[in-house]
Design brief:
The radius of gyration is 30 Å and the shape is elongated. It has two domains: 153 residues, no CATH class; 146 residues, no CATH class. The chain has a nine-stranded antiparallel beta sheet with strand order 4-3-2-1-6-7-8-9-5, covered by helices on one side. The chain has an eight-stranded antiparallel beta sheet with strand order 12-11-10-15-16-17-18-14. It has a two-stranded antiparallel ribbon with strand order 13-19. It contains six helices and 19 strands.
């Protein structure tokens, strides 16, 4: 009899637990109000106010950072005011403005964690708070974003659980929003963006004095050749030689700090100097700091000797002038000044795979055996 009573009690407890779970899930699925706004923008008036926004604050459990619009454009305060990737910023702002409501969810704060919508400053919180501001005190829009998943109807669209910090309601919304939770992820990471056929020569100099020089004689040449040190040995891989110049030409940062935060007088590393056929020279100076490679970049123009202007005319006919898109000397001076203004005040952390592609010695590129001409 006692055993039967125990079984009945356990059955009742099990039923109660199941009912509780069902009720909780039902609250998450259908809680809240506002079914009349399904299909409408989460922020109906935001699209008209995007141009008024002058700062964006993003808060997650690991990081808080602010994007600010000023005289130098959009910059990141926590990254020594280095420029923002404006394409990513635009996508963020438009993405928030175009979020559309799919269905209302719970209004019970005890269920926020289930949707990843708890306070973003809590330890291990999945949520991210995005605040769009116009001025120091006017927040145009504020949203907490939680768990997300691809839309079943359209994989190019993402579904998010969201809530507005000032209200209890939560929503399932959809849009093309790409969320960035770290300041590093919204940096303008492209340092150099030179076409590879412009590169004439690259010089790599080591702290011990060893030097490697690779060069192209013409813009149309397919491969760089090693001109210093000269050797009878074969080159292991033309790709690795070319990759030195190609990596420099498209160099990107891994992170950035203020120039004053890195001591470039200690632990000096290699230097790289890239020269173009038009006379632009870009110098990269590196140091090792806490097992990481930091670099500065600077640009200058090397003026070439004026070419002989005496025209050779045959049969009393002038050679026709061929239109060209080649930059002139003034264009190159402007390019150098622009690079120095954009890159001169910071030290850039360069990713190891970029360093490994650039920092080569002759021994890395030549085979061990000499070519005997057989």
């Amino acid at each position: 009899m006692i055993k039967m009573k125990t079984l009945v009690l356990l059955a009742l407890i099990t039923i109660a637990v199941i009912i509780g779970v069902i009720v909780q899930n039902e609250e998450v699925r259908t809680g809240g109000t506002g079914s009349d706004v399904v299909g409408q923008p989460l922020f109906p008036a935001l699209a008209e106010k995007l141009n008024d926004i002058d700062s964006v604050t993003i808060t997650s459990t690991n990081e808080i950072f602010t994007l600010t619009r000023g005289d130098q454009g959009w910059t990141i305060a926590e990254k020594a005011d280095f420029p923002v990737d404006t394409a990513k910023l635009r996508q963020l702002l438009v993405g928030v403005a175009e979020l559309k409501i799919l269905e209302p969810k719970t209004s019970n704060p005890q269920l926020y964690k289930k949707l990843g919508l708890q306070d973003p400053t809590e330890q291990d919180a999945e949520s991210t708070l995005v605040k769009l501001n116009a001025g120091d005190t006017n927040t145009i829009a504020s949203i907490v974003l939680g768990k997300q998943r691809p839309s079943k109807a359209n994989p190019g669209i993402t579904e998010f659980y969201v809530r507005k910090p000032e209200t209890a309601e939560t929503w399932l919304v959809e849009g093309r929003l790409q969320l960035h939770k770290t300041a590093r992820s919204v940096l303008d990471q492209q340092l150099l963006n030179l076409e590879s056929n412009r590169i004439k020569q690259v010089t790599i100099a080591q702290p011990d004095g060893e030097q490697l020089v690779i060069r192209k004689e013409t813009k149309d040449a397919t491969d760089f050749t090693i001109v210093e040190p000269d050797s009878e040995k074969d080159v292991k891989s033309a790709f690795e030689v070319n990759n030195i110049a190609n990596t420099l030409a498209k160099l990107s940062l891994d992170d950035v700090v203020a120039l004053s935060d890195v001591d470039f007088s200690q632990n000096k590393g290699f230097t790289a100097e890239l020269s173009t056929f038009e006379g632009l020279t870009v110098s990269l100076n590196t140091v090792q700091s806490n097992d990481e490679t930091f670099a500065t970049l600077s640009a200058r123009v090397i003026e070439e000797e004026p070419a002989d202007q005496e025209a050779i005319v045959e049969d009393n006919q002038e050679s026709p002038t061929t239109p060209t898109d080649e930059p002139d000397a003034e264009d190159i001076r402007t390019e150098a000044a622009t690079l120095n203004k954009r890159l001169g005040n910071w030290a850039f952390k360069i990713a190891p795979f970029h360093i490994n592609s650039i920092n080569k010695r002759a021994a890395d590129l030549y085979t061990d055996e000499e070519d005997n001409g057989e």
